[in-house]
Amino acid sequence: MRNPSPTDVDVAIVGAGPYGLSSATYLKDKGVGVAVFGDPMSFWRDHMPAGMYLRSNWLASHISDPHKRLTLDHYKADAGVEFKQPVPLQNFVEYGQWYQQKAVPEVSRRQVTGVENSNGHFGVALSDGVTLTSKRVIIATGIAPFPWMPKAFEGLPKSHVTHTSDHSDLSRFRGQNVLIIGSGQSALDAARLLYAMETKVEVVGRQKQIRWVGEHAWLHKLGFISWCLYSNFDVGPAGISRLVGFPNIFKLFPRSLQDPISYRSIRPAGTGWQRPYLANVPMTLNCEATSVQVQGDKVRLKLSNGTERLVDHVVVATGYKADIDRYTFFGSAIRSALKTVSGSPVLRRGLESSVPGLHFVGKPAAWSFGPLLNFVSGTHFAGAEILRTF
User: Fold this and answer.
1) Which one of 18, 233, 239, 386 has the minimum C-beta count within 10 Å?
2) Helix then strand then coil, % of the chain, to nearest 5
3) How many whole angstroms separate alpha carbon 127 and alpha carbon 131?
4) Is pLDDT above 90 for 219?
5) Contacts of 281 (CB under 8 A, 6+ apart)
6) Cis preceding linkage at 86, omega within 30
7) How far apart are CA 240 and CA 184, in angstroms?
8) Largest CA distance in the chain
9) How far, CA to CA in Å, does 221 sit from each of 51, 213, 385?
10) Which one, of 319, 326, 356, 363, lies nearest residue 339 by Cα?
11) Nearest by Cα to 367 from 265, 259, 226, 291
C-alpha cells in the first residue's frame, strides 16, 4: 500500500461556483478532507450581463449549506446590504463570494488541467504544474463549458455573432442594431438591458408565444394547497414542481415521462416583472434563422418566415447543453469509461458516474436526476446526496 503524499485529499472539487462551494461545505461538515479549485463565482461575474436579475425566487436562490446559516438573509444581515426579489446579479455574485469566504476560505484559484485515474485514485494536475492525488473527484464547473448555438450560427466570428455567455457588459452595443436569438430568460433580459441603452433591438424566437412565469402570485397564497403544488425549489409548474423537488423519486420514473417533465420544467420563459419593460421591443416569434452571413461590418439573416434582417450584431441566447466532451481535462481512460447519453454522464447514487469515485453536480447531473440540478436550488439536493457515498 502506497504512502499518501502530503498533498493528498479525500475529495478534489473542480469548480468554485454555487455547486462546488456547497458540495465542499457539506463534505467539510462531515470531516472529509476537501480541496476546491477555481475562481469563486467567476462564471456569474464574468459571463452574465451586468444589470440582469435571477429568475428564481428568494428561497430558491440560497446556496445550500448543511445548517442553513449561509442564506441570502444571513448575507444581508452580515454585510449590511439591502436588496430583495428579484435578486440582482451583482448582489448574488457578492453573496456567493461571501459564502466562499465563510465556508471554504481555502479555495485555490489554480485551474485543473488534467484528471486521470489509476489504482483506485485520481491524479489531478493543476495549472502551476503541481499534481495531487485524490480518492474522489467532483466536477462542479457549472454551465461555463456548455453554451449552445443553432447550427446556422456555428463558426461565425465573435466580432459579429456572440452567445450571451460572452458578455458581462452589453453597453458596447449602445446605439447599434442588435438581433437577439431566443425567447427565454437570458434573451428577454438582454433585450430589456439593450432597449434601456437606446439600442435598436429585436427578439427572434422559435416559440409561438412568450411564456411568462411568476404572474400568478395568488397560486402561492393558498396555504396547504400551495404547499402541495409547489416546492421551495421553484422549478416547474404547479404539481410538477413538487415532483422534481425529489430527484431520487424523479429518477425512478420511466424515461418516457422524465424527458417531457424535464422539458416542461425548464422550457424557455421570462419572469413576468420584465413584461412592461419589453412592451416596445419587436418580437418575431414562431420563427428561426435559416441562413446567416457576415457581410462587411454587418450580419445578414434570412428567417423562416421569408423575411431578412441586416444588423450590426447578433446575440444568441439559446442556453446551454451538457456535453462532457467539452471538458478538456479528462484523460483518455476516463473518457472511454464514462457512460453517457446525449452528452450527459449517467449517474447513480451519490451523483457518481460509471467511473468509480468520479461525481458530477449541476447541469451534467440533470439527465439522471432531473431539472432541479439545472438551478442553484439544486445545491440543496446535491450536497446531501454526495454524502451518501461516504
Assistant:
1) 239
2) 35, 20, 40
3) 9
4) no
5) 191, 192, 195, 201, 202, 203
6) yes
7) 20
8) 70
9) 30, 16, 31
10) 356
11) 259
The C-alpha cell of 324 is what? 462532457
Cα distances (Å, whole numbers) of residue 199 to 48, 165, 205, 295, 367: 18, 19, 19, 21, 38
User: 281-300, pLDDT tens digit by residue?
Assistant: 999 999 999 999 999 999 99
Q: What's the chain's length in residues?
A: 390
Residues 6+ apart with CB under 8 A from 387: 26, 27, 30, 350
Among 36, 39, 33, 37, which Cα is nearest to 10's? 33
Which residue intervals of the chain bear CATH 3.50.50.60?
9-146+320-389, 151-211+268-316
5 band by pLDDT with thresholds 50, 70 and 90 = very low
Contact 369, 381 (CB under 8 A): yes
Cell of 171: 453597453
CA distance 204 to 192: 14
Distance CA 201, CA 359 (A): 42
Distance CA 307, CA 177 (A): 17
CATH 2.60.40.1730 fits 151-211+268-316, yes or no: no
The rounded distance, in Å, linking the Cα atoms of 154 and 344 is: 21
Report the distance separating Cα 73 and Cα 83, nearest Å. 10
Task: Please choose, from the candidates 112, 102, 41, the residue with its C-alpha nearest in 3D space to the C-alpha of residue 77.
Answer: 102
Residues 6+ apart with CB under 8 A from 165: 43, 47, 48, 143, 144, 147, 320
Residue pLDDT, tens place only, 126-153: 999 999 999 999 999 999 999 999 999 9
For every residue of 90-103, DSSP letters joined together read: HHHHHHHHHHHHHH
Q: Which residue from 162, 88, 168 is spatially nearest to 317, judged by alpha carbons?
A: 162
Give pLDDT, residue 218.
66
Cell of 275: 413584461
Class of 9-146+320-389 in CATH: alpha beta
The span from the CA of 236 to the CA of 343, in Å, is: 23
Nearest partner of 189 among 107, 262, 87, judged by Cα: 87
The Cα–Cα gap between 342 and 317 comes to 21
CB atoms within 10 A of CB 78: 11
